[in-house]
C-alpha cells in the first residue's frame, strides 16, 4: 500500500465515529446538538460531505458562556502548578493524536500533509510554551511611593470568546486557547464553519487531559449566528479573533454594547523585497515557500514580490521554472506541496483573479488555471508585469498566487511596500546591513524578517498594523490581553489624611 492509501485508510477509521451523531457542540463537558439544526462539512478534495455538524445559535452560545462563567472562579483559583500540569497533559494528548489531527485537518481544509503534520505538533508546542509561563502569569510589581506599598498584579479577565478561521485551524486555535487557559480564563471557542473537525479533537483531548468541564467549550456554526451571539454576550469579557479585516470591523461594532476587549489578527498583502545584492538562491527558496506553502492560504504569506530591476528577469525566470515544478495533488499524499482550496466560494474568488490580472494588463507567467475536474485545485500562479495599483497587488487573494512588481531604487521599493491598507509582515532580502536597518525602520508591518522566511519564535510579539490587526500574541503579550492589571495600595503608616467635616 502506498503512503496515500495508508493515510486514506486511517482517515476512514478516524471519521467513522462521526457517522451517526456528526460533530456536536461541547458545552460544560457534554455533547449538545445545535439549536439551529445541522450543516454538512464538505471536503475540498472531492466535494463529498464529511459529516454533519451542529449549527449553534444564540441559545447554545448562552449555555456555553454560562458554563464558562460558572467554571471561571475555580479555574482561576487553581494553583498555578496544577494548571501548568493540566496544560502539559493537553500538549502530550495532542502529540499522542498528532497524526489523527493532521489527517483530519488535511481532509477538512485541503492543506497538504507535509505541512499539517508539523502544524499539529506546533499546537502541542503552543500548549507547552504557555504551560511553562503559568507560574509567572500573575507576577506583579512593586511600585514604590513614600506612604503606600503599591502592588500591581495581574488577574485573568474572565470568560473569553475565541473565533478562528479555516486556514491551519488547529494550530491557530491553540495559539489563542493555550494562553487564555494559562492565564486562568475560561473559553468559548467558535471554530470556522468550513473546518470543524480538529476543534472537536482539541476539546476532547483537553478534557481527557484533566481540563474541568466548562473551562473550554466549543460551539460550531456560522459567523452571523453563533459568532455574532458570542461577540455580543454580556458574560464574555474579551474576543480573540483571527479572520478577515472586514469581519474584524463587524465584530468591533457587535462588541461595542458590551465593551468587549478585542484582539484581532486579520488579513495581509505582505511584501517580500529582493535587492540585487541579496543571496538570490536563498531568497528564491524563501519567496516560493512563503506564498506557495499552506496553499497560499496564509495571512503571513509574501503575496507581493518586489524585485530590483537589475535582477528581475533572471529572478522571475528561475521562479517560473520552480513554480511549474510544484506538486499539486491529494493533500494526504506526503509528497503533495499544494492541495485544494478550502471551498467552492473561495476557489471561485481565487480563480476570478486570473481574469482580473489579464484585464489589468499583467502577464500570467505560470499557472493561471484550475487543475483536475474534482475538488478545488488551482495551479500555483505567478503574475508578472504588474504594478502596485492593480487589484492583484492590492487585494488579499489568499491562494497560491504571487504578484511580481519591479522597482529600481530603495526609496521606490519602500513606497510600493507601504502602499497598501495592510501591514502584517514584510520580508527584506539584502546583504547591506545599513540598508536593512533603514528599510525595516520605515516598513509598515508588525513583523519583519531580514534574509529569512517567517520563522515564528513563541516569545516574540505576533500581530499586524493598519488593517492587519490590533494587539499582539506571544510571550507576555498574550497575558497582557487575557489578564487585567490590578493595583493594590497598602498604606504604610501615617500619611496625612484629608479630613472632611472634621470638628
Ligand atoms: P472570516 O473573517 O470569514 O471568518 C473567521 C471566523 O469569523 C469564522 O469562524 C467565522 O464564522 C467568524 N465570523 C464571521 N462573521 C462573523 C461575525 N459577524 N461575528 C462573529 N464571528 C464571525 O475569515 P476566514 O475566511 O475564515 O479566514 C481567512 C482570513 O483570515 C484571511 O483574511 C486571513 O488573512 C485571515 N487570517 C489572519 C491571520 C493573522 O494572524 N493575521 C491568521 C490566519 C488568517
Question: Which key phrases capture this entry?
Answer:
503 residues; alpha/beta; Aldehyde Dehydrogenase, Chain A, domain 1; Aldehyde Dehydrogenase, Chain A, domain 2; seven-stranded mixed sheet; six-stranded mixed sheet; 16 helices; 24 strands; 21% strand; globular; binds nicotinamide-adenine-dinucleotide
Strand-helix topology:
Blueprint: H1 3-16, E1 25-27, E2 30-32, E3 38-42, E4 49-54, H2 58-77, H3 80-96, H4 98-109, H5 113-137, E5 141-144, E6 148-156, E7 160-163, H6 169-183, E8 187-190, H7 197-208, E9 216-218, H8 223-232, E10 238-242, H9 245-254, E11 261-265, E12 271-274, H10 280-292, E13 304-308, H11 312-323, H12 344-360, E14 363-366, E15 370-371, E16 377-378, E17 381-386, H13 391-394, E18 401-407, H14 410-418, E19 422-423, E20 425-429, H15 433-442, E21 447-450, E22 465-466, E23 469-470, H16 475-482, E24 483-491
This protein binds nicotinamide-adenine-dinucleotide.
Structure in words:
- By secondary structure, this protein is of the alpha/beta class.
- It folds into 2 domains: 13-266 and 464-486, Aldehyde Dehydrogenase, Chain A, domain 1 (3-Layer(aba) Sandwich); 271-450, Aldehyde Dehydrogenase, Chain A, domain 2, CATH 3.40.309.10.
- It has 16 helices and 24 strands.
- The strands form 7 sheets. It has a 7-stranded mixed beta sheet, sandwiched between helices. A 6-stranded mixed beta sheet has the order 9-8-7-10-11-23, with helices on both faces.
- Strand 1 (25-27) and strand 2 form a beta hairpin.
- The longest helix is centred in the first third of the chain and has 25 residues, at 113-137.
- The chain is globular.
- Nicotinamide-adenine-dinucleotide binds at residues 163-167, 172, 190, 192-193, 222-224, 227-228, 231, 242-244, 247, 250-251, 254, 265-268, 299, 396, 398, 424, 464, 468-469.
- Nicotinamide-adenine-dinucleotide (NAD) is lined by residues 163-167, 172, 190, 192-193, 222-224, 227-228, 231, 242-244, 247, 250-251, 254, 265-268, 299, 396, 398, 424, 464, 468-469.
Amino acid at each position: 500500500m502506498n503512503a496515500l492509501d495508508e493515510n486514506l485508510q486511517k482517515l476512514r477509521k478516524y471519521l467513522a465515529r462521526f457517522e451517526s451523531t456528526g460533530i456536536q457542540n461541547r458545552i460544560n463537558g457534554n455533547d449538545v446538538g445545535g439549536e439551529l439544526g445541522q450543516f454538512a462539512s464538505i471536503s475540498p478534495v472531492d466535494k463529498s460531505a464529511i459529516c454533519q455538524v451542529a449549527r449553534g445559535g444564540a441559545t447554545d452560545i448562552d449555555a456555553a458562556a454560562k458554563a464558562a462563567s460558572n467554571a471561571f472562579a475555580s479555574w482561576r483559583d487553581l494553583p498555578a502548578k496544577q494548571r501548568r500540569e493540566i496544560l502539559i497533559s493537553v500538549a502530550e494528548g495532542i502529540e499522542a493524536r498528532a497524526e489523527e489531527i493532521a489527517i483530519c485537518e488535511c481532509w477538512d481544509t485541503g492543506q497538504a500533509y507535509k505541512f499539517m503534520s508539523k502544524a499539529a505538533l506546533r499546537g502541542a508546542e503552543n500548549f507547552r510554551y504557555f504551560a511553562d509561563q503559568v507560574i509567572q502569569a500573575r507576577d506583579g510589581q512593586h511600585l514604590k511611593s513614600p506612604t503606600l506599598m503599591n502592588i500591581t498584579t495581574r488577574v485573568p479577565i474572565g470568560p473569553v470568546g475565541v473565533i478562528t478561521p479555516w486556514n491551519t485551524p488547529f494550530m491557530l486555535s491553540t495559539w489563542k486557547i493555550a494562553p487564555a487557559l494559562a492565564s486562568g480564563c475560561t473559553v468559548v471557542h467558535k471554530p470556522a464553519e468550513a473546518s470543524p473537525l480538529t476543534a472537536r479533537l482539541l476539546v476532547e483531548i483537553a478534557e481527557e487531559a484533566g481540563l474541568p468541564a466548562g473551562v473550554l467549550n466549543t460551539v460550531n456554526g456560522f459567523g452571523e449566528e453563533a459568532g455574532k451571539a458570542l461577540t455580543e454576550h454580556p458574560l464574555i469579557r474579551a474576543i480573540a479573533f483571527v479572520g478577515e479585516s472586514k469581519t474584524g470591523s463587524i465584530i468591533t461594532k457587535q462588541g461595542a454594547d458590551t465593551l468587549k476587549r478585542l484582539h484581532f489578527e486579520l488579513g495581509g498583502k505582505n511584501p517580500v523585497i529582493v535587492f540585487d545584492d541579496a543571496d538570490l538562491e536563498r531568497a528564491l527558496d524563501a519567496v516560493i515557500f512563503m506564498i506557495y506553502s499552506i496553499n497560499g492560504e496564509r495571512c503571513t504569506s509574501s503575496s507581493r514580490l518586489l524585485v530590483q530591476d537589475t535582477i528581475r528577469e533572471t529572478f522571475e525566470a528561475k521562479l517560473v521554472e520552480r513554480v511549474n515544478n510544484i506538486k499539486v495533488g491529494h493533500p494526504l499524499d506526503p509528497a503533495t506541496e499544494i492541495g485544494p482550496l478550502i471551498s467552492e466560494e473561495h476557489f471561485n474568488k481565487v480563480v476570478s483573479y486570473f481574469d482580473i490580472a489579464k484585464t489589468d494588463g499583467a502577464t500570467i507567467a505560470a499557472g493561471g488555471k484550475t487543475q483536475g475536474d474534482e475538488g478545488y485545485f488551482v495551479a500555483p500562479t505567478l503574475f508578472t508585469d504588474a504594478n502596485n495599483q492593480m487589484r492583484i497587488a492590492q487585494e488579499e487573494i489568499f491562494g497560491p498566487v504571487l504578484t511580481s512588481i519591479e522597482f529600481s531604487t530603495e526609496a521606490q521599493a519602500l513606497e510600493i511596500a507601504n502602499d497598501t491598507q495592510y501591514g502584517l509582515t514584510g520580508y527584506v532580502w539584502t546583504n547591506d546591513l545599513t540598508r536593512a536597518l533603514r528599510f525595516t525602520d520605515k516598513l509598515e508591518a508588525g513583523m519583519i524578517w531580514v534574509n529569512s522566511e517567517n520563522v515564528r519564535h513563541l516569545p516574540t510579539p505576533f500581530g499586524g498594523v493598519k488593517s492587519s490587526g490590533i494587539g499582539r500574541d506571544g510571550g507576555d503579550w498574550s497575558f497582557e490581553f487575557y489578564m487585567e492589571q490590578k493595583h493594590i495600595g497598602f498604606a504604610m503608616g501615617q500619611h496625612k489624611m484629608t479630613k472632611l467635616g472634621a470638628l
